[in-house]
Amino acid sequence: MPYAVIDTETTGFSPAKGDRMLEIAVVRLDDAGEVLDTWETLLDPGRSVGATHVHGITAADVVGAPVFREVAAHVAGLLAGHVVVGHNVDFDLRFLSAELAAASVPFTLAGKLCTQRLAADYLPGPKRTLAVCCEQAGIVNDHAHSALGDTLATAELFAFYLRHHGGSPPWAAAVTRAAHALPGTDLFAALTAPPLPRTHTRTRTHSAAR
Questions:
Q1: For a Cys staple, 7 with which of 77, 80, 108, 151, CB 3.0–4.6 Å?
Q2: In the record, which residues are listed under signal peptide (predicted)?
Q3: pLDDT top residue among 197 and 128
Q4: Cα dihedral 58, 59, 63, 69 sign
């Protein structure tokens, strides 16, 4: 039951209103929460980058970056057959679904888990931001508000949850059933991503909200 942790940085809050992805990272984990591989890229949104003071990405940073359709098949391949994990994962999945649909790349979600929602079972206090959850779990995120930094931090947080169950979390059976219910899923193909596309990553760090 492999996991794929994702995070995105975006131009705003709503793909329905024309906001786009600026950056995406995927970190794949094994059943125990150990990192198998990582992938990231900046993206050219074809519009203003939005709030640089939040995500730290400037217009200059995305010059030469691929547009999403150039990496769409690779992203779908990385996630296929995996349970997608994220902190407030529905936000990222809204953007991912919109971008994949615009690129005409089909994708069926095998299952999803939200580390923000799961925090109520593992961490104290009412605040559930990634920063607060990481602090409570003893995780250091030196690159907050970068897609890869937040994805790696979320992966560590998820592994922290997994350790409470000795490798057999309460959601295991439901996730396995969901994966097996996917029609016509070629498991070998699902676990094999397409060739690595052109990527573009950050070359400098800007001040971003914490």
A1: 151
A2: none
A3: 128
A4: positive
Question: For all residues of the chain together, what is the average pLDDT?
Answer: 87
Q: Nearest 10 degrees: CA dihedral of 93, 94, 96, 98?
A: 160
For tokens 């971008």, the residue is 99
Using CA atoms, how far apart are residues 83 and 61, in angstroms rounded to an integer? Answer: 31
What's the burial of 72, exposed, middle or buried (CB within 10 Å: 0-12/13-18/19+)? buried
Q: How many domains, in total, are found in the chain?
A: 1
Rounded distance between C-alpha atoms, residue 58 and residue 48, angstroms: 9
Q: How far apart are CA 150 and CA 202, in angstroms?
A: 14
Report the 10 Å Cβ neighbour count for 66.
18
Report yes or no on 71 lying in a domain: yes
> Are 61 and 42 contacting, i.e. CB atoms less than 8 angstroms apart?
yes
CATH of the domain at 151: 3.30.420.10
Give the tens place of pLDDT for each residue, 139-187: 999 888 889 999 999 999 999 999 998 768 888 876 666 566 655 444 4
Mean pLDDT over 14-20 rounds to 95
